[in-house]
Amino acid sequence: MKLISLSPTILLQARGFSFSYCSLSLDHKWHDTFAEDARKLKENQELSIGSPLRIQKLIASQSDPLLAKEIFDLASRKPGFRHSYAAFQTLVLKLGRSHHFSLMQSVLSSLKSQQYSISPSLFTRIIQIYGDARMPEKALKTFYTILEFNIKPSPKHLNRILEILVAQRNFIRPAFDLFRSAHKYDVAPNMESYNILMRAFCSNGDLSIAYSLFNQMYKRDIVPDVESYRILMQALCRKSQVNKAVELMEDMFNKGFVPDTLSYTTLLNSLCRKMKLKEAYKLLCRMKVKGCNPDIVHYNTVILGFCRVGRGADACKVLDDMHANGCLPNLVSYQTIVGGLCNQGMHDEAKKYLKVMISKGHFPHRSVVHSLIKGFTNIGRIDDACEVLCEFLRHGKSPHVDSWNEILPRIYEADDGEDLEEILNNIVRVEMNPNTRIVDIGSQLEEYLIKKIKARPRRA
């Protein structure tokens, strides 16, 4: 067992407490020792303390920040005792995180008056504490407190304060003022500083200020990053200025940037909503050439764009491109295609893709199946509607009640068979509502429909 050899026993009376130095074992019993010391402190019993390290550990072990402060104060009264910087830092953070801000500032003042060498990271943590407490004024004041300690604020301090300020809309202007005056305190805003403010002004609808900041970066030899461009592109797309967003993307390409997936998603979505589908498809094809492989979100965005304007065949081409580029369609891809084809009256193509998606383990929503069933029944193709229904039932799925209401009356009108009448009578006995699951009855109907379909001659 490793031991720390400490000075001889010295007793000090303070507030009725008796302190003494003793040897301290640094093993797994530390925590139990601290708990016992805290108990003695509360009960005015003799408390054994050793080095500043021991006090720091004792303070750190306390769950009650006020008790930690009491221990700190009692040790401070011991003649010749000097707390370690770690003890100050531990107590400052403990008090701050428990929102004892006045006590925290008091300890911080003691740290200054005793001329400790202070780590700038302590102020980073204090700023974070005020940010978590939603106290932007205190966070801003901390910036000037750093100067009082003769510490040069860093861009990291500046950026964290800016983030805290702009998180609340009415503090965007104070954030901007701090940003513009930072050079007076020998702090140079960096790329992240600009991005923080650009994002804030874009969210606030002040796109002209954001553009001005973007142009300032080049003037001050600060190179924007992909996020800088994306922030402006997203703001332009929200303002429906998609052409300017495309120009920004071209500028990125010309300057050698590789746009990230989110930048592409933003622009593709905006192009599709503006029905600039040719441009959207070109951009999708261009992505891989520019070093960013399209993912499922990019493909689905363009597929949806084509389906919205009744261009199901083009949407199918995009789906084929996915396979060629090694991106597997998902449930959303197929459902969008099937729904879009149904809306165009391309029921045979929709049925083909429905079978493909089911074969790949993607089961469509009932509404998609209902669209196809309704489409076939509306043009009198009951057999095809029944086939779709059977396919759904065969996989243990129950169609929507509207699908039953769409197909059963037409079958009943076309066939007076007793088997069907018995099945329909059973269905009527079941309470019909949007959540009805007629699985058992459906299996009987499936067998009947399959038999009738096979018995009917095929149309030429």
Automatic annotation (TrEMBL):
Gene3D superfamilies documented for this protein: Tetratricopeptide repeat domain
UniProt PPR repeat ranges: 190-224, 225-259, 260-294, 295-329, 330-364, 365-399
Keywords of the record: Repeat
Entry keyword annotation includes Repeat: yes
Transmembrane intervals: none
Domain of life, per lineage: Eukaryota
PANTHER family named among the record's database cross-references: PENTATRICOPEPTIDE REPEAT-CONTAINING PROTEIN 3, MITOCHONDRIAL (PTHR47941)
Family: Belongs to the PPR family. P subfamily.
Protein name listed in UniProt: Pentatricopeptide repeat-containing protein mitochondrial-like
Annotated source species: Dorcoceras hygrometricum
